[in-house]
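User: Can you predict the 3D structure of LytR C-terminal domain-containing protein? Sequence below.
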Amino acid sequence: MGGKYRITGDTYPRMRRPRHRRRIVLVGVSGVVALGLAGWGTLQLIDVFTGGDKSASAAGHQRDCPTPKPAAPAKALPKPAAIKVNVYNATTTSGLAKAAADELKKRGFTVGEVGNAPKAYDKKVPGPGVLLGAPTAAAGGSFTVLGTQLPGTVQKTDLRKTAEVDLILGAKFKAFSTPAEATAAMTALTKPSPAPSASCATKPTTKSG
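Assistant: Sure. Here are the predicted structure tokens for LytR C-terminal domain-containing protein:
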């Protein structure tokens, strides 16, 4: 430029950026950051209320299957011939103990004493009967086998050392189970326990994050 505005020498005046332009830049950057945070928050809310990625949710279902276990073997029970039974009558019906003892003998049991019940039980058994014996007889299965012949009996143990079992007939005794019913009950006892069901329950997996 010429005239009085002519610049001479190699030194130029420093040109300062107007301050209002700095403010505009800062405001713009802040706006971009705020919009980014708002968008990220919106996506998080959508993810919470929609359950996340649908494809991941569908694929996240799995079948929780228990490990199959082998059937438990049934406990071995004694044969009727191995069980010695003393038959006692605690009712007012005469001859009941002998008739019951004869029937048990027909079914293979070994019969011991037959007669009236001791005072502790005489006319004091309201149910079908009482099975009385040593704890070993109860644990060994003698009570269980005799119970198939007369359901509803009460089982008690005492301090005897011998293996025989007392069958004390009570007021509600009418008859033993039929041979077919007793056999069916015995068969059910000697069958192995069924294995647990292999059905699987569907459980959705939860998405972490």
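The two ends are 68 Å apart (CA to CA). Confidence is low (pLDDT under 50) at residues 55-61.
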